[in-house]
Amino acid sequence: MKLRQLHYVMEISKRGLSVTAAAEALFTSQPGVSKQVRLLEEELGVDIFVRNGKHISEITPAGKRILEYTRRLLLEADNIRNIASEFRTADRGDLSVATTHTQARYALPPVIGGFRKAWPSVALHLHQGSPPQIAKQAVEGAADFAIATEALEHFDDLVMLPCYHWNRSILVPPDHPLARQFSDRPQALTLAEIAAYPVITYTFGFTGRSKLDQAFAAQGLRPDVVLTAVDADVIKTYVRLGLGIGIVASMSHDETLDSDLVSLPVDHLFEQSTTHIGFRQGMFLRGFMFDFIQRFAPHLTREVVETVAAIQDPEQRRRLVAERFPTLQKR
To answer: Which of 14, 149, 190, 294 is a good FRET partner for 220, with 20 to 30 A between their CA atoms?
Structure first.
């Protein structure tokens, strides 16, 4: 049994059971992948995949169990390499972060700027996607960290740590009726008054959108959402065009760049959301990884991270985190 063979079967499972796609991802040939998988199956004495002619159609029951252990084994192989690198060249390496547009555009720039100065020999890779995509990348090892507000809680293989709370603001042009009526007292604004206008906000599944929908539904309201986007800058563009009022994360409003828009904080109308950072359970964290986490969320010291990560049971981890961080910084 060779690690290369295990990489092959794992990649096939991640690529929709396509040997061709797995070979392309691994920069090798399709016949070579097929041969090595067959050799592994012959050595083990069981089939990992069910084949329909030349194509793989599903994973066998034995294959599903084998893939569970393969995932753990490959993680430990990565850990061995990371431990060696930490002792050999502590200030060099790679850090891959998967996150959403809002985090990449508004929350991470100062963190990344400081991190690059402190660790100039660490190559930083930033990947953007939807929250489920981000979580999946972290679970599968394509990213070291996942940073998002939604979806991470559905992946028990991730150690999730709360970073900060945030809420929303309404963005409108200065001459909009809401701006004229509530600019000096936004706390008086109601959901019914917001729902009276066309709404532009985030695509469902992005940037706490579920909390927004829940708030309207709780009052029996159904706002006229005329446009959705994953990018707050796109939302602001269409607010400027008069298509509707924008509901965005408050951090996305820049008083200088967005001086042509009025921001009305609506913390009293929507439940606050929490941004988390997640990484694979059992992953060895290098020194610069602990530093990145603490730069993003100062309360997440190395001691705290190690304590939470050491807990195997997901529910127990969640309870500890809830007890330890009943309140967080707000952005």
So the answer is: 149
10 Å Cβ neighbour count for 42?
A: 10
The two tokens of residue 266 are 């609506």
Predicted confidence at residue 6, as pLDDT, reads 93
In sign, the C-alpha dihedral spanning 316, 288, 151, 109 is: positive
**59 beta partners:** 49
Q: What is the mean pLDDT of each run of 10 residues along the chain (331 residues)?
A: 91 91 90 91 93 89 93 88 87 94 93 97 94 90 91 80 94 95 93 96 80 91 93 95 96 94 95 93 95 97 94 89 85 82
* Euclidean distance between the first and the last CA atom of the chain, given in angstroms as a whole number: 50
CA-based R_g, the chain, Å: 23
SS3 breakdown of the chain: % helix, strand, coil, rounded to 5? 45, 20, 30
> How far apart (Å, rounded) are the C-alpha atoms in residues 35 and 37?
6
CA angle 96, 168, 225 (to 5 degrees): 100
